[in-house]
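Dear Dr. V.,

Thank you for agreeing to look over these. As mentioned in my earlier message, I'm a first-year student in the group and I'm still getting used to reading structure tokens, so any feedback on how I've presented them would be very welcome. I ran two proteins. I've put each sequence directly above its structure. The first is here:
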Amino acid sequence: GPLLMRLFTKIAVTMAAVVLIGTAASATAIAFIFVPQYLEMDRATALANTERAYEYLRTELEAVTSSTRDWGNWDDTFVFAKDLNKAYIKSNLKPEDLENLNIDGYTLAGVDRKIRYQVATDQSAGAAPVPFAGLSEIPSQHWHSFKFGDGRESYAGYADTAAGPAIVAAVAITDSNAKGPSPGVLFFSRLMNADFLKTAREKTRVEFVLVAAGKTTSGDGRMVPLSASNNVPVAVTQGDDKVDTAIALSDVSGAPSFTLK
């Protein structure tokens, strides 16, 4: 009768209210609990990927720098920087010697930036140019101010050279006891060409890119440390469906050269 109908109506209304309340509670939980968690997971993943790419490049830069220091603070190079003797070239600068160093170019410059000697690892016909090839002096963005006295001085960076992106390390030449005055600067360079970047992406499992400085900005990205153990600043921008990261890389001079994205 009417009483039973009213009871059914109350039950239906109550159930509908419970469903609506449950739906609203679920939406609230998703919006205030789960969505922030998912966003934080995306952010953490993006930062971890960026750190792997950055550390790979840093390791390669340190390897080139280490070799440059060894050669730049060596008695034989110290003498060669003064007299350009052919015995040094014959004994040390054959293509296989440079290949063993895992570099693409060897360049000797005077304290005035003038290039006094250079040689490429790949000397075959049609070989790709290497940094500083055909130049009479080292461009200022790839140079650093040296004291040219006693002591070991070295600088390195990611250089946007005429031959393409490259890791470049520079050492003020001294004898093996780090005594000067320095007769010049030794440069080792390694191209970051398509093969280099392909290997880097495969080893890091990160599809990163290098964008020349001035061709990109960090936008409204928030600057944060790369990780708890790495204070390198990275700009993090939260998009609708992804997290973008950007790290500024520097040339030998310290000037901005690339953005790692």
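The second protein is here, in the same arrangement:
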Amino acid sequence: RGIFEKREGISANFLDRMEQLNKTRKRIEKGSTLVYGEETRETHLAESLKISELVPKEIRFPALIHDVGKTGPLSADVETSKVVMALFAAMHKLEVDRSLLKELVKIIYPQAEDRERALILLKDIGVEVDKPLKDFYQMHVEWGRQIMEAEPALTGQEKYFALNHHRILRGLEVSALNQDGSIYQPRELDDYHATYLEICDYYQACISRRDNTHSKTIIELRKVFLPLVESSRQRMEMLGNIIDEIDKKGQSKPRKTR
């Protein structure tokens, strides 16, 4: 929370959201999933580079806030936000592109009373549980945009980097507003930095939630990302160089044991 409090003008609502999100993220990394105040143990890999250790210093702050949309829409209260975060924390249990949201709700809320309450809260924020899980997953980008645009202390460039962490993999390109309300126009190096953040985000998701090793995750990064840009030799080289840099950082980090 301290790093966010140092930014003058950041709202209490934003600080609270980031604090709750980081608590949930730590449980994921430790192998626990928060479900209505209880923890269920999972098996996860202990070795993991934090996203702040992966990205260049120019985008560390956007990297820290890029998932704020996983706390739910701007209108969400604390109870609703906990339900949304519980769903995102447990999403690794199912295939995102092949499952329905209601399947995940049933898994993490086995008790009928808790499940019904969660369904009511989700309905109140416009979430349809009969839709594909991937539709719910992608909502966090729009929710993040709502939350960030309500924060005048955030710059257009910071929001641009934070919001565009699914451009390549899911085609979700989002415009960001400058502090004067105009649309932020990406600069020369912005594509590189936004791409770097997206690849680091995928790296962290793989190594912390899929019981992967660093070397296996690097192989997966190449397998997943490079074919998506193979029509552009320049972008192929850029992505390849970014993955090489992440590989070097991962190899230099001391390994933890289970």
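From my reading of the second output: The radius of gyration is 18 Å. The beta strands are 32-35, 38-41. Does that match how you would interpret it?

Kind regards,
E.
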